[in-house]
Specification:
Layout: H1 7-11, H2 15-19, E1 23-24, H3 35-47, H4 57-76, H5 90-100, E2 108-112, H6 121-130, E3 133-137, E4 140-142, E5 145-147, H7 150-153, E6 161-167, H8 179-186, E7 193-197, H9 209-212, E8 216-218, H10 238-242, H11 249-253, H12 255-261, H13 266-289, E9 294-297, E10 312-317, H14 322-332, E11 335-336, E12 338-340, H15 345-351, E13 360-364, H16 371-386
Parallel strand pairs: 1-11, 2-3, 2-6, 6-7, 7-8
Antiparallel strand pairs: 4-5, 9-10, 10-13, 12-13
Domain Aminotransferase class V: 23-229, 269-377
Pfam families: Aminotran_5
Protein name: Aminotransferase class V domain-containing protein
């Protein structure tokens, strides 16, 4: 049986949670940073801030530290060190990837219609430049969520399909896609590749790219308890092709501290986190489901919610703009949540139909949030919704 998650112990690892009274419910936009990470960045800059690869002692130490960070990052997702690239952001890396892919002429791209623009715009641009056809992969409604499935993907595939992209978890809806099954479906077409945006999943679940069977997978450390922001790559490696704007030395040096935070039994830690986050999202979902004037977007079921979604909860209020609701929350509390489309504009405008309501209200929690925080947020939200 998995041990209960100790949220107080977790919170003590994040200086920002003790430094002020802000409650962070905008974690999908960027998590708070571990104290060990900020200390490691400071130590690197103060003690080993030199160019890599030289033979003098400090350079050797710096190179070793950098390589340890790269190795830790690879192990975090069960990849080999020569299979990964660390860059400034997922958005930049997917843009870089689009510039080096060798796609046969007149191929077909199948792109998710519910993804963040980071995983759609590079491929739309590439298809336009090289004359490929784009097919939009639209979700189906499953248990109240909009999911991408092998079943709604298969009709779009053909012998000309060479590239498929999708998200692992929607940054608006929070639903978890079955990426392993999707990868198997994509690879049933000879030569077809799958590119997955894992940014919204990485803070909540363990990643195993080998188990998933994907071709390309990216997430952002600054949304996964770390911090990321010059490294010249030589040779014909993946890093040379994609790492055109490599991660800063000091930031890569801090990655082992992020990985260590999850402990030696990573699987048990992630499971306890999932159980804790289920409690958080269920408090909010239970309240929202009782309101006749609220529409939840994504799976709103309570039982076993950790298996289907992460605690990124989006909703809208009848007769109220999402912007106005968030501003009313901020006016009377220290809760930091957001409104908008969060760069998943096709999803919010086309599938949710919220273009004229300032998008959704998004409350995005992670494991360092507490049940007490969510209950207090619910009380404030109740006041706001009852005020007309």
């Amino acid at each position: 049986m998995t041990a209960a998650f100790d949220v107080d112990l977790a919170r003590n690892a994040f200086p920002a949670l003790k430094a002020n009274h802000q409650v962070y419910f905008d974690n999908a936009g960027g998590s708070q940073v571990l104290g060990t990470v900020s200390s490691r960045i400071r130590d690197y800059l103060e003690e080993t801030n030199v160019q890599l690869g030289a033979s003098y002692d400090v350079a050797k130490q710096s190179t070793s530290t950098f390589e340890a960070g790269n190795a830790a990052a690879a192990a975090f997702m069960n990849a080999n060190p020569d299979e990964i690239v660390i860059g400034p952001s997922t958005t930049q890396l997917f843009s870089n990837l689009s510039q080096i892919l060798d796609i046969p002429p007149k191929s077909e791209f199948v792109l998710s219609a519910v993804d963040h623009e980071a995983n759609t715009s590079p491929w739309v641009r590439l298809a336009k430049l090289q004359g490929h056809q784009v097919k939009w992969w639209k979700p189906e409604s499953t248990d109240g969520d909009l999911l991408l499935t092998p079943a709604n993907l298969k009709p779009l595939l053909s012998s000309n399909t060479k590239f498929v992209s999708c998200t692992h978890t929607s940054n608006v809806l929070g639903g978890i896609q079955d990426i392993k099954a999707i990868a198997e479906t994509v690879h049933s077409v000879p030569g077809a590749m799958l590119c997955v945006d894992g940014v919204a999943l990485a803070p909540h679940r363990e990643i195993d790219v080998k188990e998933l069977g994907v071709d390309f997978y990216s997430f952002s450390w600054y949304k996964t308890l770390g911090s990321l922001g010059h490294y010249f790559h030589a040779g014909d490696s993946l890093s040379t092709k994609l790492g055109l704007a490599g991660g800063s030395y000091e930031l890569i040096a801090s990655i082992p501290d992020v990985v260590r935070y999850f402990g030696q039994d990573k699987a048990a830690t992630w499971q306890s986190i999932a159980q804790h986050e289920e409690k958080l999202q269920n408090i909010l979902l239970t309240f929202l489901k009782q309101r006749a004037d609220v529409r939840i977007y994504g799976d709103d079921s309570i039982e076993g919610s950790q298996r289907r979604r992460v605690p990124v909860v989006s909703f809208a209020v009848d007769g109220r703009s999402s912007k106005a609701v968030v501003e009313a929350i901020e006016a009377r509390s220290n809760f930091g949540c957001r409104w908008g489309h969060f760069y998943s504009k096709r999803l919010v405008d086309e599938f949710l139909g919220l273009a004229d309501k300032d998008g959704v209200i998004r409350v995005s929690m992670v494991h360092y949030n507490t049940e007490e925080e969510v209950r207090k947020f619910v009380a404030v939200l109740d006041e706001v919704l009852n005020e007309r």
